[in-house]
């Protein structure tokens, strides 16, 4: 996996290029990148590619469109019979359901049919808001099985897939003894292990979707992750108007009101989910997040 490193997450200030070992790969519709330091170049390079291998593995496991993927099989079969999934994927789905409860339903992975109904999936619309919600997912922890209670339920892990991949890749780096690294998937999911080579936290700028605007914030990350959500990263046309891809599972309609939401917390998976919920719920939820130890930012329309 000999991939070029093309920086896309703005570091403030820039870390000198010659102080980092870097590698990248394409997965989950974006470019993932790893930058690490502190050891022999050969060892750092091996660790970087081991982390990227884990990201590629998860790309194939979580795909909605690959018939060999676990999530594809789950969506095809679980409405008809329980599907046994491997323990790590079972734990991820259970964590997502817990995050749905924490966010009062504003984040939910059971929105696949809703995404299709609004034109973000190929094929004829098969669902509506009545087919959305993790309450329609039945988990059996004794058998490691998942079952859907409505035939139109479709699981979509797009809102947390990149963050989850970063968490797993970071675990690989830690197992390799890496003490300092920055990982990201595109410019929306970032995770830092330790500090940069200068001993200071990794400082990352949040990009405003309106490129004419300055970054709304810079974030210092040390053993911490940042998730950024915006409605217009992907769009579909409805009634001659462009609509954003972030759905409000409670109403069955696209989220409106903010052009960006960002959350920093220890887990990249959680940061992705919570930033999605923040985009849906608005600034009032930011105050709730801050009381629980997260950092949160919003940018209005």
What are its keywords?
301 residues, alpha+beta, seven-stranded antiparallel β-sheet, three-stranded antiparallel β-sheet, 7 helices
Describe the structure.
- Strand 13 and strand 14 form a beta hairpin.
- With 301 residues, this protein is α+β, with helices and mostly antiparallel strands.
- The N terminus is likely disordered.
- It is globular, with a radius of gyration of 19 Å.
- Helix 6 runs antiparallel to helix 7.
- The protein has a domain of 83 residues: Orthogonal Bundle (T-fold), CATH 1.10.3980.
- It is built from 7 helices and 16 strands.
- It has a 7-stranded antiparallel β-sheet with strand order 1-2-6-7-10-15-16. The chain has a 3-stranded antiparallel β-sheet with strand order 3-5-4.
Explain the layout of strands and helices.
Blueprint: E1 21-27, E2 30-37, H1 41-62, H2 70-77, E3 83-84, H3 87-102, H4 112-117, E4 137-140, E5 145-148, H5 161-175, E6 180-185, E7 189-193, E8 202-206, E9 217-221, E10 224-229, E11 235-238, E12 241-244, E13 247-248, E14 253-254, E15 258-265, H6 268-281, H7 283-291, E16 295-300
Antiparallel strand pairs: 1-2, 2-6, 3-5, 4-5, 6-7, 7-10, 8-9, 10-15, 11-12, 13-14, 15-16
Helix pairs in contact: 1-5, 5-6, 6-7
